[in-house]
Amino acid sequence: xxxxxxxxxxxxxxxxxxxxxxxxxxxxxxxxxxxxxxxxxxxxxxxxxxxxxxxxxxxxxxxxxxxxxxxxxxxxxxxxxxxxxxxxxxxxxxxxxxxxxxxxxxxxxxxxxxxxxxxxxxxxxxxxxxxxxxxxxxxxxxxxxxxxxxxxxxxxxxxxxxxxxxxxxxxxxxxxxxxxxxxxxxxxxxxxxxxxxxxxxxxxxxxxxxxxxxxxxxxxxxxxxxxxxxxxxxxxxxxxxxxxxxxxxxxxxxxxxxxxxxxxxxxxxxxxxxxxxxxxxxxxxxxxxxxxxxxxxxxxxxxxxxxxxxxxxxxxxxxxxxxxxxxxxxxxxxxxxxxxxxxxxxxxxxxxxxxxxxxxxxxxxxxxxxxxxxxxxxxxxxxxxxxxxxxxxxxxxxxxxxxxxxxxxxxxxxxxxxxxxxxxxxxxxx
Length: 430
Fold this sequence. Notes:
Number of helices: 15
Order of helices and strands: HHHHHHHHHHHEHHEEHEEEHE
Shape: elongated
Strand order of the largest sheet: 2-3-1-6-7
Helix content: 55-70%
Strand content: 5-15%
Number of strands: 7
């Protein structure tokens, strides 16, 4: 599940507030209601299906075997490491077979088992995120399980190779992926209404990963239905794919800022250097913005550093939503952000900067009993006018930002171009 962000507040008089002890209570109220509803619905489904399911040893053995395979994958993840920001895995290869082969009650318990292992063995995170992840996955898997068992009353026919049961299994797996993604997207959009639906739903990479997970899940279900011992053959390739996927995510995480998800300073500089070389070769225009949050220290001192982090996240989300796909945006450090605008002249750069200033000024971040609003100041520099390389552009934009601060903040400034000195008259004697 995509982890929803949370805000806390600074303790007052040495006593932590309720939101500080329970981060879920520091969320936006619509998100609190939504997540609580998901957990309550999952709990109700668990009680209903558990009380109406007869325990059988073959089913318990199949469940234990699949959870054991999931535990092996989690252990492989733990040995490789999983820092914050790495969210995709291939655990659906194990709880999808649970949904297809076993009664729906087991599909509600499988995410709980694996989320507990992730919390204990891989990386401890805020508890409500794990609970909500298990609830979302459990509801999606339970729905897929009920649908498949309604279409195929005897799940044993899945392993006989006939076409209709396999097609129904694929359809149920697709239903699981759709519900899981939609429930997560609603939570992410409720947590941050400024973020676009495009960002919280599918992109090409996520669709590809979902297809791989569904194929693995259906294949493992067929093999498991034939003989539980075949899981020993399915486990090594799944572990290898899991490690490959995690390695790719670790490489991507090394390029991004952990708090905002934007490019970090080093990665942004590499991307910016590439764009500047391209602009020189093609003769196209290019502009650079340096953006600074006004009075950010005051936010940290008043509301606490966790609330300040939420402001950074909100500003980053606004920047992404207001910029083009090929614009290069990164966090430069502290409360400063940098944006490279390929093929933008000075008028376009100023329009973009003013739009960002307006949108961020309308943004609000909840914190305890207050809503935090911030403004930004921005400096703009144009290639071939204010500098010819990245260092000169950064210096020029930084001077413009300093001027915006001096003039009262919450404004956009452009460097003042110094007139060239007049030519000295030639000495007749020379």
